[in-house]
Structures are given as C-alpha cells and as structure tokens.
C-alpha cells in the first residue's frame, strides 16, 4: 500500500508540473527574441530592481539582464550577434542598484553584525534579487526590505549551500510577516510565478523557466523564438546551437540524440549549477536544469508524452 501511495504522489506531482508547463506557455509566449533572425525584441521593464550578489553566477544574471556585449562567449567566431540576442533587449534602466558582497567562504561562519557588510536601507524598489550570499546576510534581507518598502524578494539558488531549507524557512516567514512576496527557485531556471508580482517580473524581464517556440522549414530548424530565458542566459546559446538541425520527433533514436545534443550544449555554456548531490532535489542542481532545458524543447514540439516522461525522470530521486 505504501508503494501504491508513493506512486500516486509521484503521478500527482508529474501531472501538476505538466499542467504548469501548459499554463506557463499560454501566459508568457507573447513577447519574443528570434534566434536565427533579426526580428523580435523585448520592451522596457517598469518594475524596479536591486541586486545583492556574490560569485560568478550573480555576474551572469546581471550581464544577461543588461545584455552586456560579450556576455555569451561560448559560440566564439560562430557568434551571429544581432541574429541572436545582442541589441534586442536590455534592462539596465530598471536596475536601481547592484551590491557585490564578499563570498561566504571569505567571511566568518557566524557574522555578529551583518550591518558591517550590508546597508541598513536600499532604494525603494519593487523587487530585490539575491544570490550566493552568506546565510547570515540572507537572514537580514527581510528587515532591510521592510525598511525600504520593497514588495518582493527572489533568491536564485544554484548551489546546495545557497539558502538551505532552514535558512529559507526563516526568510519566508519573516517576509510573510512583512507582506513581502518571496520565491526561491532551485535551480534558478525553475522560476515560475507564485504571485502576481513575480508573474509581472517574468513578463517584464523575461527570465525564469525557459520558454521557446521552435520554427522549421521542412524538417530543419530555421529559427527559435525565445520568450523567456534562463536567468544566466544559457537559453540563447542552446537555441543557437540547434539552428540547422533536422527534426524527426517521432523517431525514438533521433529523440535520444536530440536529448544528448541539448545536454551537451547545456554543459558547454557552461551551466553553473552545482554537481553536488542535493537532498532537496534528489539529484544535482545541474542535472535538474538540464532536464528543464529538455522539457522546454519537448513542450515546443508538442511531445506531451515525452514531456511527461522527462518530468517523471527529473523528479525521481537518484539515490
């Protein structure tokens, strides 16, 4: 009976995730940047942001949001520039402040006075993004946001030690008591809306769970519309590498090769998700993000059965 109950619980999760993908596509595919053509762009954002970060992953998020020149170097001399992402969006005007903090490993295990490192107050923005911080600095964020009249907090977690569950529980409880909306996706590319504020953030800044539409001429991928990118920008790179590939979606051998191709380019960007086993996910964070990338393309091909199979594979603990 316990086995049957676990199977039902797994099926419920898979079905919920599948329905979530379908509704996500309906909400967020209105805007696009076309990889493989000059058309498409994202409008300016109205929500105001402030960013706390430590480490390289935070730099990637900022460079992707601002569409900094040279942000994506993985294509090398094969870069197609304005036929990919450059010049088609840039959200620097919406960012009111960025504060780089010392890495957790460079700080004491316990910080007696976080305000020797953190400001007591920041500009009154709509949303704060935070990633890679020392746990004691994370725990102080709700109070800083309260003082600064900030409405929402997004914590991007791409390492197992980044805002672990005990710390996250305290952050959520404090934010809830102050009326601050909070979401903490692990990995960051699993971000989906849990409130109207976070929905507006994804709509305006176009980062979160990646969403694409694949276009073909005959059997060949001619262009890919990116509606939402992973926060690090990897979505544009993977799309660029798939241009010119043939599609034979009902061929099982082709599908397996397609999965491998997506995973190969996902690792080549490279994805910065941790390869340490994460007990919260039952797998490594990098593997989860690679599954999500595959699910993005299965959704674009309307391969619903394969999408459901991949979701099930992703959520099944690997230990």
Characterise the protein shown here.
With 319 residues, the chain is α/β, with parallel strands linked by helices. The protein folds into two domains: 2-32 and 208-315, no CATH class; 43-205, Rossmann fold. It has nine helices and eleven strands. It has helices at 2-28, 56-66, 135-147, 165-178, 196-205, 234-242, 252-268, 285-300, 304-315; strands at 32-35, 40-41, 49-53, 95-100, 127-131, 152-156, 181-183, 211-217, 220-228, 277-278, 283-284. α3 packs parallel to α4 (165-178) and α7 (252-268) packs across α8.
List the helices and strands and how they pair.
Elements: H1 2-28, E1 32-35, E2 40-41, E3 49-53, H2 56-66, E4 95-100, E5 127-131, H3 135-147, E6 152-156, H4 165-178, E7 181-183, H5 196-205, E8 211-217, E9 220-228, H6 234-242, H7 252-268, E10 277-278, E11 283-284, H8 285-300, H9 304-315
Parallel strand pairs: 3-4, 3-5, 5-6, 6-7
Antiparallel strand pairs: 1-2, 1-9, 8-9, 10-11
Helix pairs in contact: 1-9, 3-4, 6-7, 7-8, 8-9
Order of helices and strands: HEEEHEEHEHEHEEHHEEHH
Structural class: alpha/beta
Q: What is the CATH architecture annotation of the largest domain?
A: 3-Layer(aba) Sandwich
Distance between the termini: 22 Å
**Approximately what portion of the residues adopt beta-strand conformation?**
15-25%
| Rg estimate, integer Å | 20 Å
Task: Write down the CATH class of the largest domain.
Answer: Alpha Beta
Number of folding domains? 2
CATH fold annotation of the largest domain:
Rossmann fold
Total strand count, please? Answer: 11
Count of alpha and pi helical runs: 9
Overall 3D geometry? Answer: globular
Mean pLDDT: 95
Question: Residue ranges: pLDDT <50 for 5 or more in a row?
Answer: none
Characterize the biggest β-sheet: 5 strands, parallel
User: Strand sequence of the main sheet, in spatial order?
Assistant: 4-3-5-6-7
Overall helicity? 40-55%
């Amino acid at each position: 009976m316990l086995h049957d109950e676990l199977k039902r619980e797994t099926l419920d999760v898979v079905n919920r995730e599948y329905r979530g993908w379908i509704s996500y596509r309906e909400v967020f595919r209105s805007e696009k940047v076309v990889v493989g053509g000059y058309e498409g762009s994202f409008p300016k954002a109205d929500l105001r942001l402030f960013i706390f970060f430590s480490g390289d992953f935070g730099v990637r998020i900022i460079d992707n949001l601002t569409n900094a020149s040279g942000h994506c170097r993985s294509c090398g001399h094969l870069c197609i520039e304005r036929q990919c992402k450059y010049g088609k969006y840039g959200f620097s005007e919406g960012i009111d402040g960025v504060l780089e903090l010392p890495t957790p490993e460079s700080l004491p295990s316990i910080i007696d006075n976080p305000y020797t490192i953190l400001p007591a107050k920041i500009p009154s923005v709509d949303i704060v993004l935070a990633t890679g911080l020392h746990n004691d600095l994370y725990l102080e964020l709700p109070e800083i946001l309260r003082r600064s009249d900030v409405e929402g907090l997004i914590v991007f977690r791409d390492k197992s030690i980044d805002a672990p569950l005990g710390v996250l529980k305290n952050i959520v409880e404090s934010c809830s008591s102050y009326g601050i909306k909070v979401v903490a996706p692990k990995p960051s590319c699993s971000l989906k809306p849990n409130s109207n504020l976070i929905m507006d953030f994804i709509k305006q800044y176009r980062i979160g769970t990646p969403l694409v539409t694949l276009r073909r001429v005959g059997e060949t991928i001619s262009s890919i519309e990116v509606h939402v990118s992973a926060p690090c920008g990897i979505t544009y790179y993977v799309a660029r590498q798939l241009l010119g590939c043939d599609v034979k979606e009902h061929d099982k051998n082709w599908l397996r090769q397609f999965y491998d191709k997506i995973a190969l380019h996902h690792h080549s960007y490279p994805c910065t998700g941790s390869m340490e086993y994460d007990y919260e996910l039952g797998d490594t964070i990098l593997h989860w993000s690679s599954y999500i990338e595959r699910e993005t393309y299965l959704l674009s091909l309307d391969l619903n059965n394969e999408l459901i199979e991949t979701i099930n594979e992703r959520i099944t603990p690997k230990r």
